[in-house]
Amino acid sequence: MGIGRELALAFAEEGAQCILVARSADKLEQVAKEIKAVRAPEALVLEADVCRAEDQKKILEAVSKKFEHLDILIHNAGKGVYSFIEHLPVEEARTLMELNFFAPLILTQLFLPLLKKSQSSKKQIIHISSIAGRLSIPKMGIYSASKFALNALGDALRIELKKEKIHVLSVYPGVTDTPFSTHASSIDGRPESFATPGQGMSAALVAKKILNAACRKKRDEFISFQNRLLASIHHHFPKFTDWMLRKFVQ
User: Which residues are catalytic?
Assistant: First the structure.
């Protein structure tokens, strides 16, 4: 759903053969039907939990059986938690980090051999981070921490994989019209200002911007001018953004 669904459709429309991975088989099959409708190559549908070790291996085995190489690996699965750090259950934090950070780390390690076999000039790993991965958002501290970690992973991989000609793109969406806020866990209540359904940029437009960034092999894609401006203001005037974010959450 959301950005993941639109990414699959955007890449399929450009002729990519997609591998769709999620826990919801019915939603995957629906996206696969939509991909078929645009006359793109048939998608490989894999019902799996990217956090489970046995499923991670199952994904690799299924992909390796059908394809000799992989051109692009996109890490899009993720969720949020609304909680002040003071009240955050540690197990909730561990669960979030498993999905937002450790799953991308492990799947990257597993799929690197297939990426290295690709002869594509645009072979790459794409991390769907968040503007919250560039500045920490109060009441979303652990989500921000997971995305900061994902960004650091991408920065290191970009350098380490340069000799393999595998590019790494980090993407920083802001508020997007998806069910993200509805599906996020809430320990201290969900702030109305964080609601995303019906708010922000459409997931389809976000996906098109990501596709364009991938084609251009950009290092970072902030999605919007506002996101880039906010990251720049935070870098140069951190106290001001602290004050601004305090007002935002209240």
Answer: 143
